[in-house]
Amino acid sequence: MTTQKLTHWTDKEYKKILLKGIIKQSRHFMKPSGIWISVNGSWEKWLDGNWEGWLKGKVCLNVELKKDINLFIINSKQQFLNKFKELTGKDYSTDSYISCCIFIKMFHEKIKKLYDGMWLKAKPFYAHRLDFDYFYSWDCESICIWNTNKIKFKEMKK
Predict the structure, then answer these.
(1) Is residue 1, in this structure, part of any structural domain at all?
(2) Could you tell me how far CA 69 lies from the centroid of its own chain?
(3) Rounded to whole angstroms, how far apart are CA atoms 127 and 94?
(4) What one-character-per-residue DSSP string does 56-86 give?
(5) Residue 79 lies in domain
(6) Distance CA 57, CA 11 (A)
(7) Within a domain: residue 106?
(8) Phi, psi (degrees; rounded to nearest 5) at 12
(9) CA 156 to CA 81: how far, in whole Å?
(10) Is 78 a domain residue?
(11) Average pLDDT per run of 10 along the chain, which is 158 residues long?
């Protein structure tokens, strides 16, 4: 994996806990639950003009991934669709809200047994964010880590 600037934003009062390695994962529907990591300022760029107030009361930490981390790296929409079908036995579809909920939840449960996290790269995100709701829900290129033994937080150097 090439060197990337990886960051995580958190509430000021939670910073000390994260630096000690005590990690609380965020919960989502369309996205997997986990710790969300910005890649090369992707989240910060998305916030600009979309949700500037979100940064109020937040601090930024550097994130290091362990060398042996096993990420499902999404390099294309088709790669994601293939993995979705492999793990759920179904084609990805949002035709039925209930069906969509069931199979996205199943996909997340199964992918978490195989990988430490998932990285949606910028190229497929921007190519399909407006025509594919799963990618759109991510907001920008980012990494979600659910195996928190594979990450470490560090203070930002000033």
Answers:
(1) no
(2) 14
(3) 19
(4) TTEEEEEEEE-TT--EEEE--HHHHHHHHHH
(5) 6-155
(6) 6
(7) yes
(8) -55, -45
(9) 37
(10) yes
(11) 85 85 73 94 93 91 97 98 96 79 92 98 96 92 96 85
